Amino acid sequence: MNDLTANKRLPAEELPIGELLHLGSHTVTEEEIIGFAQQWDPQYFHVDLEAAANSEFGGIIASGIHTAAIFQRLCVENFFNRYDIIAGREVSQLRFERPVFAGTELRGRVTIKSVTPTGPGRAIFSSTGVLVDNADRPVLSLVLDALIRSRE
């Protein structure tokens, strides 16, 4: 989805409370895993094919921070860009449920749990999110709160 201008983004009142929102998918490549990890999380099981093959994982796995970044990108492209979000406020209960290997297709989902007015023209929404793998098993889960503009 293309980024909308601020005056066309939807306010808090349009958030679909209780609905499961599908965020699309991203297939993780070995090159992506190694490239991200070389810059941001250069642990051997993210960057060294031979060492990773002899680890308890049996191969290269994506960094948890890389996995969280994939979730963020899917959220922005398929959810956040439609709404007049001001800023993220809190990420809690972030869990890395299982390793992500090269070739894994990750699919994202978000559920809006609540919207709470915080003052004139602003609200906070709380949501839960998950990334699942090819077998529909969670690889990442979290609770996300963000500040959004409202009509009121």
TrEMBL record:
It holds the Pfam family MaoC_dehydratas. Residues 25-114 form the MaoC-like domain. InterPro entries: HotDog_dom_sf, MaoC-like_dom, MCH/BMMD. Belongs to the enoyl-CoA hydratase/isomerase family. This is Acyl dehydratase.
